[in-house]
Amino acid sequence: MKILITGATGLIGSRLSRQLHDLGHEIVITSRDRERAIAKLPFARDVVEWDPVRTPAPAAAFAGVEAVVNLMGEPVAGRWTAGRKRAIRDSRVLGTRNLVEGMRGARQSVTGTRNLVAGMRTAAESSPNSMLPEALVSASAIGYYGEGGDRVLAEDSRPGEDFLARVCVDWEGEAARAVTAGARVVIMRTGLVLAREGGALASMLPIFKAGFGGRLGSGRQWMSWIHVDDLVALYVEALTNPAFEGPLNAVAPGPVTNSELTETLARALRRPAVLPAPAFALKLALGEMAGAVLESQRVIPRAAVSASFRFKHETLEAALRALLKG
Ligand SMILES: NC(=O)c1ccc[n+]([C@@H]2O[C@H](COP(=O)([O-])OP(=O)(O)OC[C@H]3O[C@@H](n4cnc5c(N)ncnc54)[C@H](OP(=O)(O)O)[C@@H]3O)[C@@H](O)[C@H]2O)c1
Description:
Elements: E1 2-6, H1 11-22, E2 26-31, H2 34-40, E3 46-49, E4 67-70, H3 82-116, H4 123-126, E5 135-141, E6 152-153, H5 163-176, E7 184-190, E8 192-194, H6 199-209, E9 222-223, E10 225-227, H7 228-240, E11 246-250, E12 256-257, H8 258-269, H9 279-286, H10 290-294, E13 298-299, H11 302-306, H12 316-324
Residues 7, 9-13, 31-33, 37, 52-53, 71-75, 87, 91, 95, 139, 141, 190, 192-193, 199 line the site of NADP nicotinamide-adenine-dinucleotide phosphate.
């Protein structure tokens, strides 16, 4: 299958692109910096330079493309200035709108060609260029649910109302428009992705290894995580299995509280973790973004489990052991 991936140069995208390539799929990626993307993912069949906030994706990028994965987005970690908040929102909401606009443009140009030669089975119809994306698998985040306390959150739970929740709602709404471009749409509400090379775990490791780890705030907030290998497998499944449609919680079946996460990581590293970061200090250091760290989201992967997806790393202990070995 030929697959177009946005945000392919990122943490999830580079793992997923490599896995899809290894499975024999042809990868086309978009990036704001073509040279950097080629250097990072040299196996990509094509790299399309595109600034997703400014213009619709070029229709030519979709030539022969059967499925699209949408992973682009300004990183959320770090202090949120007004400019960062705008970038976090625009790169997802406007970026996805422009992606779907490009998919629609590609559909119109292909169906236009087909109509011109109506009634005849032409070269255009049988050529790979006349393929249209049949699936859009688009990232979202469990931030969709906002502050959930101890409530168990499944895909049909209500969205929250804070900044990230509103971004997620609008981001998902833009992706859902691809239905009118004839695509099956899957929305990956992703939890905290655990990977050795980047994301939350990579930032926590040096602190915990130095013995300065500790719970964040009360430590009672639920954290829903997923091992990066399971996330990649879930993306592959969502791309290839038509049973997957609509929102999907991309989290492991065993969410933990922040205290449990802290203790499990410290145990895995054989280090103490007795230096808690009080909520007020986090708010001072991170401003509004501290809310995202202190928010409680006890999310379960109901849709993935009903579609018989098998997680390789069901417990945090097992996931961390696999990630930290060697
Ligand atoms: N990692 C997690 O724990 C996690 C959790 C929940 C949800 N997600 C979501 O999953 C998606 C992928 O996550 P990730 O961790 O792989 O992200 P990432 O490593 O930060 O990479 C995202 C990619 O988006 C592009 N990008 C960055 N800033 C942008 C901007 N201002 N405008 C347009 N494009 C921009 C970059 O590609 P180019 O520079 O090549 O253009 C970058 O490689 C994101 O949308 C993220 O919100 C991730």
